[in-house]
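so i finally got all the pieces together for this one. its two components total, 233 residues if u count the protein bits. some of the lines might not be protein, just check the labels. i wanna see the whole assembly predicted at once instead of chain by chain like last time, that was a mess tbh
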Amino acid sequence: QSVLTQPPSASGTPGQRVTISCSGSSSNIGSNTVSWFQQLPGTAPKLLISDDDQRPSGVPDRFSGSKSGTSASLAISGLQSEDEADYYCAAWDDSLNGYWVFGGGTKLTVL
Amino acid sequence: QITLKESGPTLVKPTQTLTLTCTFSGFSLTTIGAGVGWIRQPPGKALEWLALLYWDDDKRYSPSLKSRLTITKDTSKSQVVLSLTNVDPVDTGTYYCAHRGWGRKSWTFDYWGQGILVTVSS
């Protein structure tokens, strides 16, 4: 069971806007920034969003991140077929000696 | 350009020790702030963070696996090695190493290796 909670699945049609949530606690999302990773089928994860809402160079502006309290969200606007992938949130957790925690992942299907 | 690549055995027997090597380029683990992490993914399941090694040799481990994990570095070879003792079939999965990089205001895993699929079976 993952420390960060994500819905197992999400879906949308081309052109739509979809949102994926990530819920944590005061020791992780509540006190540290959130990263989002995209994992296309059969490939390694790729950094999509860092620092809650920052897109690395090369990531389309259709992808956006936000955070409020102990929850974060990833929004994808203008959905495209190539966005069909698994999405993971992650954050540093300050408890114990400090460690990274990931969400359980959300499989996005483009209908 | 930062690249990382995992190497090691693809088949390990239960109770053995799994040793994986991450060979990287494009950065140095002697640079202040640098780090390399390991993350694994059982088939069809979620990512699970395992360990992180910092430039100053500080280390962090997953609380649930801490007793079985060891992470070390060989700076001269640009390598980070992860060892997992007493493996079990539940340790089967793809193991990734990743670069700890600075975003705009905090750290993240900004570059990942391609991963290596390890199967634990007798």
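Chain A touches chain B through 27 residues (CB under 8 Å).
The radius of gyration of chain A is 13 Å.
anyway lmk what u think
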